[in-house]
Structure formats: structure tokens, C-alpha cells
Amino acid sequence: MFDSIYSSSVTASEFFLMAGAAVLSGLLFAWIMSRRVRSTRRFFIVASLIPFVVGAVITFVNGNIGAGVAIGGAFSLIRFRSAQGTADEIAAILIAMGAGIAFGMGYLAYGVLILLALALLYYLFSSLRLFDSRPMQEERLLKITVPESLEYVELFDDTFVRYLKSFERLGVKTTGMGSMFRLSYLVRLKNPKEEKAFIDALRTRNGNLEIALLPYGEQQNQL
Questions:
Q1: Structural domain spans, the chain
Q2: How many angstroms separate the CA atoms of 14 and 1, rounded?
Q3: For a Cys-Cys bond, which of 44, 97, 111, 202 suits 30, CB 3.0-4.6 Å?
């Protein structure tokens, strides 16, 4: 059951058997992951097809080092055409690719096991509260736009002390063709019900320019 279905040369029937197992288990994998991962419909369609695509590539390379290097180079170009994904999306892609390698080598049972077992484990772990940290859940990413003429270093400190449990400046960058600065802070509110009052207090200091208060996590690399 766990032996490779491939002989010395891959036949059409063996290839289509691999394709059927990869596509069907990929669809089931994507459906299970969609119960917990927040992403687009297109992402799950792609995730369901990746096991077959990777499996087909491994099958066609079949020990040809030159072809393997060429395909690896072609796959590396995808990185420069892809938007940065979340940790959940990256995990789903890695699982699908790992299963695809097993399918490409003819180990269908291992491929199905990798997809379904890891999808179920992910579903289980994401359902548990063991990995939740309340302080981390309370963290927000605060972005404040200020005019370039404004001295912003300690401008908001008294407002922060009034409304925040803690705050940390993450960085600053120019925006609006250099006519404004965008300040980024990691903050925790004392009282979430005072969110509007906090933003209103900030607006009186930054000339009523843009202010964003976002969940911290996926946006942490977007200062």
C-alpha cells in the first residue's frame, strides 16, 4: 500500500492514477483548511492543485538533473510575482508541496496521508486555546500620518499615557511624495471601548490626517 506505483518507466495509467489521487486529496485538503484559514477562494483552488502540479513536475524530471535545475530556477521566479502570504497560507502551500513530492515519486498513500493528516492536525490545533496569548491578542498596529513640518517625537506621549497600557514605536517612513510622515506604533489599549476617544484625541494633534488602528499580526511587516 505504501510502495511506489511507478516502475522503471512511468506508464500513462500510473500517471493518471497519481493525478487522480493528488487532485482528489488536494481538494479535500483545501476544503479542510478553508474551515480555519482566512483567505480567498482562489487561494484554496490553487492549494488544491499544487499537489498534482508538484507531483507532475517530479514525475517528468525523474532523475534528470538538468531538468530539475531548470525547473527549480523557473519556480524561483514565482517568488517575484507573488504577494507576501500569511503564516497560514505559507503553511498550506508547504504541506501541499510536500505531499506533491510524495505523489511525484509514486507514493500515493504517503501523499494522501501527508495532506489529510496535517490538515486535520492544523484544524485541531487551531481549535484549541493552548496557543492563544491574551496580551498578544490585545496588541494593535497604530499608524499616524503627520505633516513633515510637525515635530512628532514626543507629540503623542501624553495621549498614549492617557489611553494605552503600553506603546512602542516601530518605525517611521515618508509618504505623499515626502510631504508627510507615517509613524507606526505597537499599542495596547487600556479600555477597548475608548477606541474612538483615543483616535479623536490623536486627530487633534496630527491635523486631522489619516490614522489607522489595526489588528497586529498580518500587518506587522507593513509599517
A1: 12-127, 134-215
A2: 14
A3: 44
CATH topology of domain 134-215: Alpha-Beta Plaits (3.30.70)
User: Which tens digits make up the pLDDT trace of 126-135?
Assistant: 777 666 555 5
Contact 213, 195 (CB under 8 A): yes
Res 221: pLDDT? 47
CA distance 88 to 21: 24
Out of 22-31, 54-63, 101-110, 147-156, pick the least confident. Answer: 54-63
Which region holds residue 134: left if phi is over 0, alpha if psi is between -120 and 50, else beta?
alpha
Tell which residue, 55, 54, 31, has the closest CA to residue 43.
Answer: 31
Q: Whole-model pTM above 0.90?
A: no
Which of 196, 201, 192 is CA-nearest to residue 160? 201
Please check whether residue 109 is in contact with residue 156, taking contact to mean a CB–CB distance below 8 angstroms: no
